[in-house]
Design goal:
192 residues
C-alpha cells in the first residue's frame, strides 16, 4: 500500500509543480499584454489561468491524500489536518474559479449591475475575498500541518524550509485585505 501512496504523491506533486510553472508563464504573458498595471488580465490568458488553477488544486489535494496515506502513525493527525485544510482551499477556489469561467461571458451576467462586486478579480469583490480565504488562509494552514510530516522524512530538510517560505509568503498576502492593496496581496501568490 505504501509504495502506491508514494508513487501517487510523487506524480501529483510533480503534476502540480509543472502546472504551477505553466501558470507562471501564462501569468507573465498575461501581465506583459496589459496596457496598464491596473487592468485585469484578459483572454486567452485569464481563461488559461483559471483552468490551470482548477487542475493545480486537484493535484495538490491528491498529493496531500498521499501524504496522509504515507505518514507515520505519530504524525497522521497532522497529515489529516493538512488534508482537510487543503480540501477547504480546493473547494472554495474550485467554486470561485468554475463559476467565473462558466458565467463571466454570458449576456445575462454582463447585464447584471452587481456582477463585478460578486465575481470579478478587482478589489473589493466576493470572489476575490473567497480566493484570498482559500489561498492566503487555508492553504498556508494546510502547509503548516505538513511540517511535522516533512520533519519525519529523511532528507527533506530543504523541503521543510521551502514549505516554511510558502507558509510565510501566503500568510503575508493577507495584508492586502486591510490595506485594500492587491499588489501587497500578490505576495501571497509567491507562496503557492
Amino acid at each position: 500500500m505504501l509504495p502506491t501512496f508514494k508513487k501517487t504523491g510523487a506524480f501529483a506533486s510533480y503534476t502540480a509543480a509543472v502546472l504551477g510553472l505553466l501558470y507562471i508563464v501564462v501569468t507573465a504573458l498575461g501581465l506583459n499584454a496589459l496596457a496598464s498595471p491596473q487592468d485585469p488580465i484578459s483572454d486567452p490568458y485569464f481563461t488559461l489561468m483559471e483552468s490551470l488553477i482548477l487542475l493545480i488544486v486537484c493535484a495538490m489535494t491528491i498529493a496531500l491524500v498521499a501524504v496522509y496515506g504515507y505518514a507515520e502513525a505519530e504524525v497522521k493527525p497532522f497529515a489529516l489536518t493538512a488534508l482537510l485544510f487543503m480540501a477547504f482551499c480546493a473547494g472554495i477556489t474550485s467554486c470561485v474559479h468554475f463559476v467565473i469561467l462558466a458565467t463571466r461571458n454570458t449576456p445575462e451576467m454582463a447585464q447584471w449591475p452587481d456582477f463585478a462586486l460578486l465575481f470579478s478579480f478587482r478589489w473589493p469583490s466576493v470572489a476575490y475575498a473567497l480566493d484570498i480565504l482559500a489561498w492566503d488562509w487555508f492553504f498556508p494552514i494546510s502547509m503548516l500541518f505538513t511540517l511535522p510530516v516533512i520533519r519525519r522524512s529523511t532528507g527533506a530538510k530543504s523541503l521543510w524550509w521551502l514549505t516554511w517560505g510558502c507558509i510565510l509568503l501566503s500568510f503575508a498576502g493577507l495584508l492586502g485585505v486591510p490595506l485594500a492593496n492587491m499588489q501587497v496581496r500578490n505576495i501571497g501568490i509567491l507562496g503557492y
